Amino acid sequence: MQKIDSTSCRSVLWWMVFTGIAVNYMLRVNLNIVIVSIVKPPEKPAIESECRDSWINSTLVHRNSTKPEKYYEFTWNEYQQGLAVGAYYWIHWLSEIPGGILARKYGTKIVFGMGNLLAALLGLLLPIAMSFNLSSLIIIRALQGLVAGVSYPSTHEMCARWIPQNERSKFVSAYMGGGIGIALTYPMSGYIIDYFGWKGVFYVTSFLGVVWFIFWHYLVFDTPAQHPRISKDEKTYIIENIGNSISQENHENNSTVPWIKILTSMPVWISILSNWSCVWGYYTLMAQAPAYFKFIHGWNIEEAGLLSGLPHLLTMLFSWLFAILSDWLLKTEKMTLTNVRKLATIACTGGPGLMILGLSFSGCEPTLAFFFMMTGIAFAGAVTSGPLSNLVDLSPNYASVLLGICGLIVDAAGFLSPILVGLLTFENQSVGQWRIIFIISAVNMAIGCIIYGFFGSAVRQPWNDYHKAKSNKNDDIDSSDE
């Protein structure tokens, strides 16, 4: 086995995917923190009636917790805010499957790169849209979600072409770059708002997206064979270890995708269900944590930003450590591939599910709420070694298509979660309502954990070689005609 050093092409690829997804999520969540700071809160915040005696209320809420009336430029209610945040996901799902198909045809370099670049350019229009009306904001956010939707599923195409199976968990941990993007965006946005105004948040995150695209264009290539600077040893190692799991001919000829076999595959749907379970809980905390800690525990915008972003640093750390464990278990043959994926799925759904359940009953105890939130989001990092890697295991040839289908389904979580929160907290920002929100998330995660634990599989599916079987069938027909 070849050791990966910091200058290997796989290492550079990891960093570029990591930072690319970080930028993608920065552009996705920047509105979440902005909207908390510029929208007028309820006349009587929940913290005054339910958590007035809490530690956070006595130490933090009195520092910059109230701002002059003129600071609040918008008066959207909770439901309208939910529409603005959720609009990103309204048509985001439409580009998920096309993203996987386009990556097979044109390569991840173009698809991922252009998806992020266009989302960044649209981000520059958000301040203008918000100055007009809510409808304009919703339209731009929806378009931003649409173009960014092609990026994520395209990554699996590159993973299948570059990364051997026993390194896959570690590489897919780069997908947790989104967590780092969130962790940086929340506190960064808080300070930008205080010193430069809320519009600066959109300009800075879009600028970072453009800079990333420049590096991506010059450093990343779709296959080892195309890379002009890869060493001979690394190229040989990759080709030998990937073997025949992925067919170059299949991609070059744009062979037919076996849609019926994929859509009727039980292992695929079980993997998608486990992804859904993890993503629902993750999105609930990712998108709604600032509002929860502001209205329930009384934290001002900077503290809400920092403490809502900090757990995502632990998500990345946990993802990385669990990936090292998973790859070690495979290399030493301590566990089968399927059992490694089950272990990771239990960690990323069962662990957070218990933590979110604890959060739902933490009431006005900010220390407990902070602990449960931080621990729950951290455990979710194991998704990279579980359900996400599992899709490549099932079919390297069609991995980007599988991730596109998965993204289409689980994006509904990003769409429904903010709307559900808006409906449940509309004119009722209370501990009881947030408890319902968190219990719904915990139940979602428990279902995915149990089903994958019993029925999940990482065995490569027969239809991964669908193009070969079809080709052989055609050859047999041609032979019989002679």
TrEMBL record:
Its keywords, alphabetically, are: Membrane, Symport, Transmembrane, Transmembrane helix, Transport
Its placement in the membrane is given as: Multi-pass membrane protein
Query: Record's InterPro entries?
Result: MFS (IPR011701), MFS_dom (IPR020846), MFS_Na/Anion_cotransporter (IPR050382), MFS_trans_sf (IPR036259)
Q: Which GO terms describe its cellular component?
A: membrane
Question: Per the record's keyword annotation, is Transmembrane helix included, yes or no?
Answer: yes
Q: Name the chain's protein.
A: Major facilitator superfamily (MFS) profile domain-containing protein
Species of provenance = Aphidius gifuensis (Parasitoid wasp)
User: For this UniProt entry, what is the primary localization, expressed as one broad class?
Assistant: membrane
* Transmembrane parts of this sequence: 12-39, 110-128, 172-189, 201-221, 268-289, 309-330, 342-362, 368-389, 401-424, 436-455
Q: Which GO terms describe its molecular function?
A: symporter activity
One GO term of the biological process aspect: monoatomic anion transport
Superkingdom:
Eukaryota
Which residues belong to any copy of the Major facilitator superfamily (MFS) profile domain? 16-460
Its localization reads: Membrane
